[in-house]
């Protein structure tokens, strides 16, 4: 009897232990499964739409981010890009209703891309840049009509319309800088931020954190982002986008009143009849066409990089500066410092010319070779896949970029290496739109958000690790201490 009692006790404790092991294992497995499986259900996405109404064209961007992480840096990503067909909204000055209509195709696309249940809560913003700034200067009534037309269209969409405005050059520069540093996750880090160089058709912006006090309040902006203070130098040059500078350069060459223009910035063999009004009909060109009896001029190319550079240098005024130092046109600029991301037309042009990632000297040599290539050869090489207008202008645009960076902003052979020509960072376009949305939705906190103790992935691994550890512990305990078993008492005997 006594022996039987002795045998019953370990069987009883063994059974208890087995039940405990299975119970703990089941609970841990269930917790782990639920943690893993529930995640996508808990992960709610939010969306935002920004329309970039540039001088040459409009583009719609859809951004998305996980709702619970909207204050963490780098969480907002570009989900979709839709280029609006046709020209920029400022080209609708004489047909303002067309401006709003032109956006419809991209709005329809956005409706399909975003879950209909989210339409009502998705903000939509339109920001217009230098094309509309110029139209506002030239013909404010038409500019207002164009803005009303786009407001009208956007307010009738199912999205949450948050306004259509002309943004200032300062905002354009600052938001571009915020975008590249947000995507690069540079805020709040010791390594510092990256400067931003944006080249458009009608204006160009330079924005960076200077290592000197900023002398002019107009060029200074202060931000507190993710727990760090930033004083940023920014300037936007209206009329110094590449399309307006081409007009300025043509104007300088046409001042002699000639109808035949031999242009070193265009390829040899290029010859096109153009209208004077296409050069003079912009507030950027201050002179008027002296001889209005003639409508057209012939634009011929001679393809000479060095002469093209001197022709472009004439559109900059380097002679007056009332501050300690200037870029050009009397605009104060501290010396460039740190790394720079150059995007928009900087990227399109330098990427087409295959001039990214070279020394300044090599860039110049290769561009000179490209410029002296005859127009026939250029057309044969690229004509099939590149629009003729862009193709004819790459020599000019590349030379303008070099002149602006070297003579305008004072980049040297040394600091040239700090410039990266960028299109996208982690799948999102470099440009002002993302920074604009982050600012308007208050998604960039002044202080660093509390970081969670552990990432989701880390938590799952920890749970699994703990469960394995517990099981091993129980197994060892059972084997070496009590030798209890999950089998029947008969087996033990
Ligand atoms: O594929 C391309 N190759 C060359 N230039 C391009 C290409 N795509 C866009 N661009 C140019 O980039 C510039 C974009 O300027 P945008 O329309 O943003 O003007 P803004 O910023 O001055 O208002 C324009 O000059 C346009 O012609
Ligand atoms: Ca632009």
Automatic annotation (TrEMBL):
Residues reported in the UniProt entry to bind ATP: 201-205
Signal peptide coordinates: none
Subunit structure: Homodimer; disulfide-linked.
Pfam families, alphabetized: GDA1_CD39
GO cellular component terms listed in the entry, alphabetical order: caveola
Superkingdom as given in the UniProt entry: Eukaryota
Keyword Nucleotidyltransferase assigned: no
The protein, known as: Ectonucleoside triphosphate diphosphohydrolase 1
Keywords from the UniProt entry: ATP-binding, Calcium, Disulfide bond, Glycoprotein, Hydrolase, Magnesium, Membrane, Nucleotide-binding, Transmembrane, Transmembrane helix
Residue numbers annotated as active site: 172
Family from the record: Belongs to the GDA1/CD39 NTPase family.
InterPro entries in UniProt: GDA1_CD39_NTPase
Topological type in the membrane: Multi-pass membrane protein
């Amino acid at each position: 009897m006594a022996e039987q009692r002795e045998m019953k006790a370990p069987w009883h404790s063994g059974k208890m232990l087995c039940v405990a092991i299975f119970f703990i294992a089941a609970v841990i497995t269930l917790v782990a499964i639920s943690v893993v499986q529930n995640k996508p259900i808990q992960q709610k996405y939010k969306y935002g739409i920004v329309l970039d109404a540039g001088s040459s064209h409009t583009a719609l961007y859809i951004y998305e981010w996980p709702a619970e992480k909207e204050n963490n840096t780098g969480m907002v990503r570009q989900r979709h890009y839709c280029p609006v067909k046709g020209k920029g909204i400022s080209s609708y000055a004489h047909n303002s209703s067309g401006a709003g209509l032109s956006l419809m195709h991209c709005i329809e696309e956005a409706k399909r891309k975003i879950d209909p249940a989210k339409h009502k809560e998705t903000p939509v913003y339109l920001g217009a840049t230098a094309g509309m700034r110029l139209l506002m200067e030239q013909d404010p009534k038409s500019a207002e009509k164009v803005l009303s037309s786009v407001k009208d269209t956007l307010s009738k969409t199912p999205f949450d319309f948050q306004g259509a405005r002309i943004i200032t050059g300062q905002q354009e520069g600052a938001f571009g800088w915020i975008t590249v540093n947000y995507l690069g996750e540079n805020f709040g880090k010791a390594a510092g931020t990256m400067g931003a160089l944006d080249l458009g058709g009608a204006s160009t912006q330079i924005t960076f954190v200077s290592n000197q006090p900023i002398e002019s309040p107009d060029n200074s902006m202060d931000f507190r982002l993710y727990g760090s203070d930033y004083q940023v130098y920014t300037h936007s040059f209206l009329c110094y986008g590449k399309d307006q500078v081409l007009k300025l350069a043509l104007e300088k060459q046409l001042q002699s009143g000639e109808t035949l223009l031999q242009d070193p910035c265009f390829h040899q063999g290029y010859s096109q009849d153009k209208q004077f009004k296409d050069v003079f009909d912009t507030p950027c060109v201050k002179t008027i066409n002296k001889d209005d009896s003639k409508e057209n001029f012939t634009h011929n190319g001679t393809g000479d990089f060095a002469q093209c550079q001197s022709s472009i240098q004439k559109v900059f005024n380097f002679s007056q500066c009332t501050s300690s130092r200037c870029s050009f046109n009397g605009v104060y600029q501290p010396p460039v410092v740190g790394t720079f991301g150059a995007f928009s037309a900087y990227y399109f042009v330098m990427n087409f010319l295959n001039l990214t990632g070279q020394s300044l000297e090599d860039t110049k040599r290769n561009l000179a070779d490209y410029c002296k290539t005859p127009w026939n050869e250029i057309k044969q090489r690229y004509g099939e896949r590149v629009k003729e207008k862009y193709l004819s202008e790459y020599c000019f645009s590349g030379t303008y970029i070099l002149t602006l960076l070297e003579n305008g902003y004072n980049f040297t052979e040394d600091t040239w290496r700090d410039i990266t020509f960028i299109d996208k960072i982690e799948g999102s376009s470099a440009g002002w739109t993302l920074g604009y949305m982050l600012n308007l939705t208050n998604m960039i906190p002044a202080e660093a958000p509390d970081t969670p103790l552990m990432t989701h992935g880390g938590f799952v691994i920890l749970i699994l690790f703990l469960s394995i550890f517990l099981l091993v512990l129980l197994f060892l305990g059972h084997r070496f201490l009590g030798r209890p078993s999950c089998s029947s008492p008969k087996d033990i005997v």
